[in-house]
Amino acid sequence: MQYPTIESTVGNTPLVQLKRISAGSNTLLAKLEGNNPAGSVKDRPALSMLTHAEARGEISPGDTLIEATSGNTGIALAMAAAIRGYRMKLIMPANASSERKQAMAAYGAELIEVSREEGMEGARDLAEQMIARGEGRPLNQFANHDNPLAHYETTGPELWRQTGGEITHFISSMGTTGTIMGTSRYLKAQNPAVQIIGLQPEDGASIPGIRRWPEAYRPSIFEQSRVDRVVDIGQQEAEEHMRRLAREEGIFAGVSSGGALAGALRLAETLDNAVIVFIVCDRGDRYLSTGLYAPEQS
Fold it and tell me: Which of 2, 30, 98, 231 has the greatest count of CB atoms below 10 A from its CB?
């Protein structure tokens, strides 16, 4: 008998309709990426980057891999490296939640931190320096086309199938932009009228998983033509809607997912009878130490 492996559980995540949060005449659907084995949408590109690089002969089990990450990609890569037999060095800002750091370490990854002030830009710079010194092989999610390819091959087809081709709007937070790039490419190929909405943080907002990149650091996989509209999301708005997802829908998720809900509701105010899908990027348990879900004080 052929039994499934942990790799085979990546993808095919549920798409569920919100019941208590109203979007008027519109249908509001959440894609639950926290159901992936390492808990986020990044499981898809992590496995894709490793398996495609292996197939091209660029890496082989036993190699050391290096990647800059703010959290979810690092956890997913640490899992994928454990599955396939790689050493993983992850560079990340020191202000990432303790749950994220512990999850990476649990999978056997080595963590290297840069300061909060250096942020993801500093993490990316250090990763490049380490690779130049020959300390490991790069994956570079920001320029690696196997990142959006994962979503072209899996997320897009799943959404088309799960909605019976009725999806009219797709909303995704933008970090590396792999999710929105690959999903947009697939959905637009099925129906060019599907609208693709990307989310970025307002100036001054710090929302894990959503970035407003300086021009010099903009991911090279990003193609502006694949996004119909970009919406700015505020810090408080994202956090409030994150808590709404848990308390009103039973969906325990992170801050970027709250931002996606906020963007979806804002969009729904301008539409009638639309089928709006938004990505719930990860699970809320990796944010508990931040206090975002702490009981309200009376």
Answer: 30
Closest CA to 58 of 46, 68, 49, 47: 49
pLDDT tens digits along 243-285: 999 999 999 999 999 999 999 999 999 999 999 999 999 999 9
The 3-class secondary structure across 247-285, one letter per residue, is HHHCCCCCHHHHHHHHHHHHHHCCCCCCEEEEEECECHH
pLDDT band at 298 (very low <50, low <70, confident <90, very high): very low
Q: Using only the alpha carbons of the chain, give its radius of gyration.
A: 18
Catalytic residue among 172, 173, 184, 256: 256
Catalytic option among 42, 89, 101, 188: 42
Tens-place pLDDT, residues 42-94: 999 999 999 999 999 999 999 999 998 878 999 999 999 999 999 999 999 88
At 116 the three-state DSSP class reads coil
184 noted as active-site residue:
no
* β-pair partners for 40: 282
Cα dihedral: 193, 196, 197, 199 (round 10): 180
* Residue-wise pLDDT tens digits, 83-120: 999 999 999 988 878 888 999 999 999 999 999 889 88
Residue with tokens 């801050």: 255
Cα 4 to chain centroid distance, Å, stands at 25
DSSP designation for 152: I
pLDDT bucket at 296, cuts 50 / 70 / 90? low
Global pTM? 0.93
* Cβ-contact 286, 103 below 8 angstroms: yes
Q: Could you tell me which of 112, 133, 151, 141 has the C-alpha nearest to residue 217?
A: 141
| CA distances in angstroms from 173 to 29, 114, 122, 170, listed in the order given | 15, 24, 22, 10
19 is catalytic: no
